[in-house]
Design goal:
Elements lengths: L6 H16 L3 H13 L5 H28 L3 H22 L13 H7 L4 H15 L6 H28 L1 H6 L1 H29 L1
Helix pairs in contact: 1-6, 1-7, 2-7, 3-5, 3-6, 3-7, 4-9
Length: 207
């Protein structure tokens, strides 16, 4: 089954993985803020929560992607809408908060990082599309599922580590222009939300 998978499939798969993982989204944006507020080392628990939740979610996406997309296709747009609205909610929290202060209402804990994954539409749709389009048509089996989920979670951890480190490394610059970075990070979060929400709404209206 895996013999059919060649360079023609590898390039779009890697492109999809890296672009989706390293571009702004809830995980990367919240890791940036955590790194800025708490430093990289104190953000590790939060990032390990993201890693754990991401790994579990990839397993679930691998197990249920065929069911959700074939048996219950009507669920997909509603998952996208709910997740996008949650991302907008996070953007509002960031925009209202003082980026130069540690008094954020968001708690950067292991539990928060883990639970964030199950409200993260970007990760959910990423897992469903990835397994349904790029992995299971060519590979199958529980070992493939576990190994691929671990590699994807590790790639995600690399991304949030870079974002968190950037937040901690450039904290002095951020403190100098707190309002600018509040607007910037909230805007990135809102853009991620709208980029998912807009095509779903257009499709629902036109159908």
């Amino acid at each position: 089954m895996g013999m059919e998978f060649g360079l023609f499939n590898l390039i779009p798969t890697l492109t999809f993985v890296f672009v989706t993982t390293f571009t702004p989204g809830p995980n990367n944006t919240m890791s940036l803020i955590s790194g800025k507020n708490n430093g990289y080392k104190k953000s590790i628990k939060f990032m390990l929560g993201i890693f754990s939740g991401f790994f579990i979610l990839m397993i679930l996406c691998g197990l249920f992607n065929r069911i959700l997309f074939t048996v219950f296709p009507f669920i997909k747009p509603y998952i996208s809408i709910a997740g996008s609205l949650y991302m907008l909610y996070l953007a509002i929290i960031i925009l209202k908060s003082d980026f130069g202060s540690k008094s954020y209402s968001i708690v950067f804990s292991y539990k928060k990082g883990l639970l964030l994954q199950f409200m993260n539409v970007k990760v959910i749709m990423y897992g469903l599309v990835l397994y349904g389009t790029f992995i299971f048509p060519y590979f199958d089996g529980i070992l493939v599922l576990i190994f691929s989920a671990f590699l994807l979670a590790l790639t995600s951890f690399t991304s949030i580590s870079l974002w968190s480190f950037s937040g901690s490394r450039f904290s002095s610059i951020i403190n100098r222009y707190p309002r600018f970075f509040s607007i910037l990070t909230a805007g990135l979060m809102a853009f991620s939300s709208i980029s998912i929400l807009y095509p779903v709404i257009v499709k629902l209206i036109s159908s």
